[in-house]
Design brief:
Elements lengths: L2 E4 L2 E9 L3 E5 L13 H4 L4 E5 L14 E2 H12 L4 E6 L1 H12 L4 E7 L11 H20 L3 H12 L5 H13 L2 H4 L5 E2 L16 E6 L4 H13 L3 E6 L6 H4 L1 H12 L1
Parallel strand pairs: 3-4, 3-6, 5-8, 6-7, 7-9, 9-10
Antiparallel strand pairs: 1-2, 2-4
Length: about 260
């Protein structure tokens, strides 16, 4: 079980297959187990690295602020990855894009799946209306925090309405297992300053933006904003997918990722 050593902690990672490097970045309340159905087919054609951020999975907990981009660099160094296609989902998509901004020489392409970037800077009326819906969801989550299983179930129901029952149970279980991040008063991860959401136009690598038509409208509008502002970006919308297309539209997700490799 390999670990990358970082200041104040350690990071768990896994590596499978051989060939060009692809690094997968988890959704915010998930860990490497979310890729259990992706790694087998992907590792047939590339070397796949998955890893857990601090406070999730088998990585150490954080007790003070840390550089999340530096953490990813440490994993790549420990895993022997000089450059890679980064595929990030949700908060992992934000991390992938921020890493590509700081280290373009280490990123062949950033694949931003259902990117999670928070509040819109200077929102349009449509974007502001979408954020109102998101704030209402987060308010409902906050009221449920005394019951972590209920909080997890409510969250997955909202984000992933198109997944199968077995995948729903998996995602709820991952959220419960990683519930520390729900109850922390502040996430200790620190990214770019100013954040990447203000710097899409500065990203110097190709960006492939993927979003599901059944995801929150706010995520779809973020996808459009990123695709319009990044210098070299394409946008793909999967009609059957929600926030987790590797579960809700697995065949389409597989074809999409393989097309990026081709």
């Amino acid at each position: 079980m390999p670990f990358a050593e970082v200041s104040g902690g350690y990071l768990y990672y896994e590596q499978h297959g051989a060939g060009p490097d692809v690094v997968l970045l988890n959704g915010g309340l998930a860990d490497v187990r979310m890729w259990a159905s992706t790694v087998p087919w992907l590792a047939e054609v590339v070397r796949v690295t998955t890893w857990d951020c601090r406070d999730r999975g088998l990585s150490s907990v954080s007790t003070s602020p840390y550089d999340e981009i530096g953490d990813l660099a440490a994993v790549l160094d420990a895993a022997g990855v000089s450059s890679a296609l980064l595929v990030g989902v949700s908060d992992g998509a934000r991390q992938a894009l921020a890493f590509a901004h700081r280290h373009p020489e280490r990123v062949r392409r950033a694949c931003v799946v259902a990117g999670s970037f928070g509040e819109f800077p200077s929102p349009t009326a449509e974007e502001e209306a979408a954020r109102v819906v998101m704030r209402e969801h987060f308010a409902r989550q906050a009221k449920l925090l005394d019951d972590i299983p209920a909080t997890a179930a409510n969250d997955i129901a909202a984000w992933c309405p198109a997944v199968s029952e077995s995948d729903r149970r998996l995602l709820v279980g991952l959220a419960i297992a990683n519930s520390r991040i729900m109850t922390m008063t502040e996430d200790n991860a620190r990214e770019l300053d100013p954040p990447i959401k203000h710097r899409f136009a500065e990203v110097g690598v190709p960006v492939s933006v993927l979003v599901g038509a059944n995801d929150f409208q706010g995520r779809q509008l973020w996808a459009r904003r990123l695709a319009s502002q990044a210098p070299d970006a394409t946008l793909t919308v999967l009609p059957a997918a929600d926030h987790m297309p590797m579960f809700s539209a697995p065949d389409e997700f597989r074809s999409y990722v393989l097309s990026l490799l081709a």
